Automatic annotation (TrEMBL):
It holds the Pfam family HAMP. The keyword Oxidoreductase does not apply. This is Methyl-accepting chemotaxis protein II. The keyword Transmembrane helix applies. One of its GO terms (biological process) is signal transduction.
Length: 238
């Protein structure tokens, strides 16, 4: 955009306010202008020298920190001989990267010259993943960090939740099993009481066990009840 953006001196302020550039400076016929008007000779010297030494139609300067702001300048040399300096504040790029913040992961963006544009990295047990980003003739490095301690803590917390769930399930299964066993062994317990009474001579042979269960234990109890009936019948005939 900067290469194709041709602006006049009187348009600098309006373009600067609507284009998102931090500052626009234009060199025309050896004079320097910005959004506040013309620059003094002292202020204009570095811009004029840079414009005279520029050969390529477009160059991008390395990122520098100005009042803690990461700034990058795009210099466009136009066909009419004028030169425009577009200062771009990369803080908005940092704000964009902040949207990708996740617990236990961090990002860091640095320039080829080592200037940090953005970082939210903290100290800890970290592993890193690097990705090189080519920007014009510049190479930036985007590094992602993963906090292993955070992952371990989350894993431990998840394992604890799973363990608690398994314990609750086991308790439920045990309670259901106890109830089922009590129901299944109820006829057998009654039979045991009858046999015990008979062994002491106090049993009632005319009493028949009431068996509701149809499982093997219930069948055993039923079969044991049959001799009682037979014995009672024999006693009557005698």
């Amino acid at each position: 955009m900067a290469e194709n953006l041709k602006i006049g001196v009187i348009d600098i302020k309006n373009v600067q306010e609507n284009s998102g550039f931090e500052k626009i400076t234009k060199i025309v016929e050896g004079f320097a202008f910005d959004n506040n008007g013309s620059l003094t000779d002292v202020q204009a010297i570095p811009f004029i020298e840079a414009a005279e030494n520029q050969v390529e139609p477009l160059i991008i300067t390395p990122v520098v920190l100005n009042d803690a702001k990461p700034l990058m300048t795009i210099i466009a040399k136009h066909r009419d001989g004028s030169t425009t300096f577009f200062d771009l504040n990369l803080s908005e790029l940092a704000q964009f990267l902040e949207k990708f913040e996740l617990e236990g992961s961090y990002l860091e963006l640095t320039t080829q010259s080592g200037v940090t544009i953005f970082t939210n990295k903290t100290d800890g047990n970290l592993i890193l993943i690097k990705r090189e980003i080519n920007f014009s003739d510049k190479k930036w490095m985007l590094t992602g960090y993963i906090d292993l301690d955070n992952i371990q803590a989350n894993t431990h917390r998840l394992n604890k939740m799973i363990t608690i769930a398994l314990i609750i399930s086991a308790i439920g299964i045990i309670l259901v099993s106890i109830i089922a066993l009590n129901y299944a062994f109820k006829p057998l317990l009654r039979l045991q009481m009858v046999v015990s009474d008979l062994s002491h001579g106090s049993g009632d042979l005319t009493q028949r066990l009431e068996v509701k269960s149809q499982d093997e234990i219930g069948k055993i109890s039923s079969s044991e009840g049959s001799p009682h009936k037979s014995a009672s019948a024999k006693g009557c005939t005698q």
